[in-house]
Amino acid sequence: MSTRLANAGRLVNKNKAVSFTFNGKNLRGFDGDTLASALLANDQMMVGRSFKYHRPRGVVASGAEEPNGLVNLGKDNTFEPNQRITTTELFDGLTATSQNHWPSLEFDVGVINTYFSRFMPAGFYYKMFIHPRPFWKHIYEPMIRQAAGLGKAPKDRDTDTYEHFNASFDVMVVGGGIAGLAAAHSAGQSGARVMLVEQTADWGGRAVVDMPSIDGKTAQDWVADTVQALENMPNVTIRLRTQGSGVYDHGYVLAYERLTDHAPENDGPRHRLWRIRAKQIVTATGAIERPLSFAGNDIPGVVLAAAVRDYAINFGVSVGDRTVVVTNNDDAYRTAITLKKAGLDIPAIIDARTSAEGDLIDEAKALGIRVEFGKGIAKVKGGKRVTGVALCNQAGEGAVIEEISCDCVAMSGGWSPVVHLWSHCGGKLIWDADQAMFRPDPEKPPLGADGAGFVVTAGVANGHLFTAEVIADGFAAGRSAAKAAGFKAKAAQAPMGEDAHEGPLAPVWLMPQGASHALRSKAWLDFQNDVKVSDVQLAAQEGYESVEHAKRYTTIGMATDQGKLSNINGLATLAKSLNAEIPNVGTTTFRPPYTPISMSVIAGVAKNELFQPIRKTPMSDWHTANGADYEPVGQWRRPYAYVRSGETVHDAVNREVVNTREKLGLLDASTLGKLVVKGPDAGKFLDMMYTNMMSNLAVGKCRYGLMCSENGFLSDDGVVARIDEDTWLCHTTTGGAERIHAWMEDWLQCEWWDWKVYVANVTEQWAQVAVVGPNARKVLEKLGGMDVSKETLPFMQWADGTLGGFDARVYRISFSGELSYEIAVPASQGRAFWDALLAAGEEFGAMPYGTEALHIMRAEKGFIMIGDETDGTVIPQDLNLQWAISKKKEDFLGKRAQERSHMADPNRWKLVGLETVDGSVIPDGAYAIAEGTNANGQRNTQGRVTSTYYSPTLKRGIAMGLVLHGPDRMGEVIEFNKVDGTTVQAKIVDQVFYDKDGEKQNV
Amino acid sequence: MLTLHCPNCGVHADETDLHAEGEAHLKRFASGSSDDDFHDYMFQRQNPKGVHFERWKHVYGCGKYFLAARCTATLEVFGTYSAQTHEPPQAIKDAITAKRPGWSWGDFS
Amino acid sequence: MKKYSAFAIAREAFRQHTGWERAWARPEPKKKYDVIIVGAGGHGLATAYHLGKNYGITNVAVIEKGWLGGGNTGRNTTIIRSNYLQDSSAAIYEKARSLYETMSQDLNYNVMFSPRGVIMLAQTQSEIRGYQRTAHANALQGVKTEWISPQRVKELVPIMNIDGPRYPVLGGLYQARGGTARHDAVAWGYARACSDMGMDIIQQCEVTGVRTNAGKVVGVDTTKGPIDCDKLGMVVAGHASVLAQKAGFRLPIESVALQALVSEPIKPCMDVVVMANTVHGYMSQSDKGEMVIGGGTDGYNNYTQRGSFHHIEETVRALVETFPMIARLKMLRQWGGIVDVTGDRSPILSKTPVEGIFVNCGWGTGGFKAIPGSGWAMAELMAKGQSPLTEEFNMFRFREGKFIDESVAAGVAH
CA of B42 to nearest chain C CA: how many angstroms apart? Predict the structure, then answer.
């Protein structure tokens, strides 16, 4: 059984007990425990069920590479599935439940899959569930989906906060083991700005567990001294609980810091995402131990050898009373020695090598531990917990020669350097056959903006397994990274490390070497996704030979641990099946994040109201207080209508239209773009930008202009005013302001850069109000200060002045067809001006109106709307706007495009008005049906509706649309489809429904 | 996650401060040009797997356009230069040649 | 080829699965084929398949520089829908969707086509109009879609937040028989069927040159030597420009990065595919339980198959806003590919200036859903010289100004 040892672990404070629950059971641990060590201390070995076969799963590792120990953590709005128990620090009140079983962890009906596992090899689902066809959707898939997934879906909103830090450093060091500490120190000594991050809560990595000596001190002391030194260096930043998550191009690194997961009672953001630019990156990311592939290696109690001693030394927890160690290398002997010294039983060390010599082997023997060379484990006994092992000859086929009872198997197949961050931007690997590992190829680092390498690896991550080399490598890496970043360090001595002499390992990819199919189908590679050696062999047999095919076919390496324990064993198995060399098989692609990072931290602070910037006009508060029903228009929010109590939105819109046409309406037009275009060449420039002539617009006058893209399509429209000799004011649509400003700048900076023109986007400098209706002039005269009579300020002219004491520019322009003035005042006066208009206008029936009333009124007048009549494929000629296209200009943007054959085709649909025969409103987007079908069997069409509304002015539905030869077919009735299959008939009419001669806007 | 040196204001800008604006050195064909010339101007693009010239705008900075010579296969940046030119300056071309001898792009080499 | 079925699995279960044959052969190239398809992704394999199935043209080689299905087919977000606006788009995507309906049976390979429904959310007035227009167009095109209310959206997707403070959901365009499929299985299923018809799929073989004579194609040069052919199909997505250049012509495309990501797997919580184009993100839940998430393309020409992280941020932000419950999930993996985008963001299926060379490219972000329809149409074009499905997608449309523009109704074409 797993228990707490008498001696406390390094990290555990036995004076501070902590209470937590697991599957409803109240348990106790200590401050400093991880959830994994605390569960083990409480003899809770089994912590979950595997994905496919629902086999019992126990913890296998002690760090972020853990594939099995995943729990649902927390509840309500702190609920989070798939939390790794090995990286969850214990805190008082922690509550966790195991995953992927029903009804309980101990009794899971899903285990039935194990009994049918022979029918469920890799890829079985590609070969079945094919017939009958409807069963996939209604039966098979729902079953599969129900069985899928691990943790439960969260239900409540996340109320924690998250933040982003932006930072730049000269040298970023990832990994707080001795190589990383040495690198950060040597880089820092050179004067470079350094950041060092460590994903766990503790510095020193393996060295503080395995305790080599460094510079004559214990590793623990050396680490403590170095950390102290780093903390004292003002140019060095160090962080624990911060994972180097991904390396991106040009030296961008994401680091994921967990601030309060271990202490939820603390204030502040839960997680922080560091967005870092570093000139050089040192990955001192260590290595991950490999499992061995033997039958039953997935039974709870089979644990990586280094993890077993991590639990003993760091947490004072013994995984098992009787531990058999199985290995192909010397390092695992450390586990046997550690446990023996702690008073635990080591029945045997099973060493697959035919022979080996080294200091650790000697020490183990000296302690009286039995060592068996040339042997392997044929299979592990036990179901929910290891009860024993059956030994065999490693060179044989698995015949059992002895059985040993035990409750823990500590396995080690060697070490795989962590090469993820090196690989993210294309760093290449080489296969080191002697050490049976892939490690970074220093000749092929990831390349940065200058074409030179920007990442160096150090320490075990670089393939060095012995302290002396690890620490020297870290020291050197720090210096070379600093140098590459432009900082030269003074001469210094690398720290000197010393540890036990070890012999070479022997690669063992299958135990025993000649294992039968029965054994190979129980030798696990991927514990979470339930992929066995036999599965990878099957993939090779079936021709899924590329490492990517084998991965995707078997799903090896695709679980939440992303293959950290299974990658190398998997591709070695594949290589063997193909009779290929491991390096020729290659690896799959490493992608960020190194381990999963929270979606919340990626989103950061931009949530809810702050999801995107909100743009408001100076009158926004008034709108909100007066029933505005808003519609988003880009990042603005504009009132669609102002809804009074008892009204529907539709009622409000109708009221606004009627009131504006009969009395007085006020529209907040502040969001429409206003661009000042000024300079000696401004007129020439605007002649290129617009289809119309603008250079000959007289000072004081206004002209409605169209802009097209170079591809010929109508892009924006608006009224242009000539302010003075060299200044024009261009209005754009709300959505067009930034876009057209950018468009103008593009041409001025990149094509006609010798023209003298300046453009300023003054949209937000001016508040603008449309004062509209038969009483418009009356309210302005009441405010007083300007002559706004028909004689002084006729239609399509503007004037500056003061109105009611406000500095104003008044444009006599109309989008509604009524008497209309658009008045610009400085933005800071916008609200006051609006209030003044409402007050003065009360006796004239003043009411605000919103965007929908605006749309209806312009449609009644047959005016086009960018975004309704246009969709990116419509040219002015389609909309009867030829009059706005100057025939005198040689060139303007879009002219050449409109000369292309399809653009000049007389069969292009043209704009007309549409009146339903029954007076109803044609649905938005309806198409006019024509005879027959096309070559693809689709109904032929001859037109479509572009705008359609109920007109309260005319008390019927009105619409505009594009129709084949429309203007030539006045009076004809055509049919439009509705989505329910019925049709509605409409007559083709003039697009101007109201005040055809335009008398009302001219008064 | 590119960084590009803005030659207008001198800031070494992060990609998030920039907006990509398409291929550089497009020759504008207007009224009177042939269908082929106009089509090529509007749609034909080098789209190379290698040395490329493109436009950038320093939108969250000085607001100005500049041009960059960059490799689309490795993201190496050979240099950035003013947008007010029809051709990459000799210094840029030399910088490319130093790294990619024998390169060519459209009419440039 | 031995038929796949539950019986076959049961039989093999007692023989330690030793009887399963290679899904596709691994031949060396012949000297000449009637047709060479360059690119063994979904589109290329589907083209070869339909050449054989529909026209009996089986003397075909599909040449692939990497491993088959290893490009965008192996890394997309698996969405299938045909609710496009323009007639020609709707025709080819609906052809594709209807072929997906029976693909598992046709290929005897379970591609797990799951018609669980796709909703495109309307979050602005202009999107409402755009999608209602699409619903009307679809009704006439024979594509079954419907405009649904926000309440119906919420019923279909309980985890969605329809009352977001910035962009409340105003309704949606719903295609009940859109959905997803297992992308690798599509490539593998086609590869197996092609191999079974006697076609040669030649992997790890890069085309280094294209040989022509008097304006007509005669063959290709490859890393495995020269191979002759009468017809050549270029179906290589992001590398189309590179390949076209070898044949002496250019294409109006640009290759940019497209990214996607998945969360860790969780128990089922979302049945429908949801696309939110106003906020630039879309999400579905795979059969494995992972939330599969994507957004729009990155902005600049890029062949690295890596994108920039701020796009991931924007996409995740948009989806956390739309589905607040995913905030406490974790991103498991992010990746990128290369998509080629044309001037009107619609694909090119076309003859080229070189006789006998056909090109299929420019699918941008919308390639996976089109695979079987694209293959069917390309096969028709290559076999007969013309096809009503490819008519409007010719590469010369840009000259005439005759674009197929889908951006009207959808900000992100997926």
Answer: 8
Write the CB contacts of A46 (distance below 8 Å, at least 6 apart in sequence): A56, A57, A58, A105, A106, A300, A384, A385
Closest CA to A100 of A87, A91, A110, A90: A110
Chain C residue closest in CA terms to B55: C300
Residue type, A463: G
In contact, C382 and C106? CB cutoff 8 Å: no
The span from the CA of C158 to the CA of A805, in Å, is: 55
Query: Splitting chain A (1003 residues) into consecutive groups of 10 residues, what average pLDDT does each group show?
Result: 91 96 97 97 95 94 97 92 96 94 86 87 92 89 87 89 97 98 97 98 96 94 97 98 98 98 94 98 98 98 98 97 98 97 97 96 97 98 97 97 98 98 97 96 97 97 96 97 93 90 96 96 96 97 96 96 96 97 92 96 90 94 97 92 97 98 98 97 98 97 97 96 98 95 98 98 98 97 96 96 97 95 98 98 98 97 94 94 95 95 94 97 97 97 97 98 98 96 97 93 87
**CATH code for the domain in which residue B75 is found:** 3.30.2270.10
- Residue B73: which domain range? 3-107
Cβ atoms of A276 and A168 within 8 Å: the answer is yes
**Total structural domains within chain B:** 1
DSSP secondary structure code for residue C363 in this structure = B
Chain B residues touching residue A249 (CB < 8 angstroms): 1-2, 75
Is ipTM over 0.95?
yes
d(CA C293, CA C281): 7
Please give the structure tokens belonging to residue C357: 């060379």
Residue C2 tokens read as 């031995």
Q: What is the DSSP track for A924-993?
A: TT-EEEEEEE-TTSPEEEEEEEEEEEEETTTTEEEEEEEETTGGG-TT-EEEEE-TTS-EEEEEEE-S--
Reported pTM? 0.95
Phi first, then psi: give them for residue A538, nearest 5 degrees.
-65, -40
Say which DSSP state A461 is in: G
Query: Chain A to chain C, count of Cβ pairs less than 8 Å apart?
Result: 327
Which of B38, B43, B57 to mutate to test binding with chain C, by most C CBs within 10 Å of its CB? B43
What are the C-alpha distances in Å from A857 to residues A440, A656, A711, A850?
A: 69, 10, 31, 11
CB contacts, 8 Å: A248 with chain B: 1
Interhelix angle A567-578/A547-554, nearest 10 degrees? 120
